[in-house]
Design goal:
The protein has about 260 residues and is α+β, with helices and mostly antiparallel strands. Strands 1, 2, 3, 4, 5, 6 and 7 form a 7-stranded mixed β-sheet that branches. It has 7 helices and 7 strands; from the N terminus they run ααβααββαββααββ.
Length: about 260
């Protein structure tokens, strides 16, 4: 009888543990849903207001010339695209923060990935007279290739948006540094240093140092928070440092041994 009782108690204990896990999972899901709704509501207010305003202008024929009507339509399309990007980034961020996305580790040449990302925006660099300095070399790492590309792309985009001319040049330098069994990827851009009180805040979602910056160059304010979530999932270091004549962001990857 004692064996039966002990067995029953163990079954109840295991059932209770499973129930607690289910409740915890449900609580996390509810929290994730609430946070997502809050973030979407926060970030979509401006584009929705712009779309509404320009759409009303078209309906009420505020402007009759074709060029102005085309401009109104382009603003609506542009803001709708921005809304789409924000929602997708927020969904990705939520999944990462709540552990919903597993990392897929593979071996790949990090230089090929970086060169491919640079090529995608080469036209922009030419138009903005930005010099990209990167010496390609074969270095293999073990990491999630998709998320590594997101981290690097966010750093490069951030550097492009915040670059300023120093001594007649606008420079973005991409360099490597080997630290024991890690590869540190560094992205430097010429420009103003970041205030000490902002160095930690820039990783928070929607935080923007220059609130006066226009919407075209201001970004979503989600890019660096995505970097933070990705890097925390990998367990590797990331960060930012003020340098002479600019700012340097970095992240680390596991070297292929």
């Amino acid at each position: 009888m004692s064996e039966t009782l002990e067995k029953t108690i163990n079954q109840l204990r295991n059932s209770n543990i499973e129930l607690e896990k289910d409740i915890e999972e449900k609580s996390k899901t509810d929290e994730m849903r609430k946070q997502f709704i809050s973030d979407v509501s926060h970030e979509l207010k401006t584009p929705i207001a712009l779309i509404q305003g320009y759409a009303e202008g078209l309906v009420e024929n505020i402007t009759e010339d074709e060029e102005s009507r085309k401009f109104y339509a382009e603003v609506i399309l542009d803001e709708a695209n921005k809304m789409d990007i924000v929602v997708k980034k927020l969904l990705e961020l939520m999944k990462l923060e709540y552990g919903k996305n597993a990392l897929t580790l593979t071996r790949f040449n990090i230089s090929e990935l970086i060169q491919e990302v640079i090529k995608k925006s080469s036209k922009l660099y030419e138009e903005e007279n930005i010099n990209i300095n990167f010496e390609e070399e074969v270095i293999y790492v073990i990491a999630d290739e998709f998320y590594t590309e997101q981290v690097f792309n966010n750093y490069l985009t951030n550097a492009t948006k915040n670059i300023a001319e120093i001594d007649g040049k606008k420079e973005i330098n991409i360099e490597y540094e080997v630290i024991e069994n890690k590869l540190r990827v560094k992205v430097f851009n010429t420009g103003e240093n970041i205030n000490s009180e902002d160095l930690n805040r820039i990783w928070n979602r929607f935080y923007k140092i220059d609130t006066s910056r226009n919407r075209e160059k201001g970004g979503t304010g989600i890019g660096l928070s995505l970097v933070k979530a990705i890097m925390q999932n990998t367990g590797n270091k990331y960060g930012v440092e003020n340098k002479e004549n600019g700012v340097e962001f970095y992240f680390e990857l596991d070297l292929d041994k």
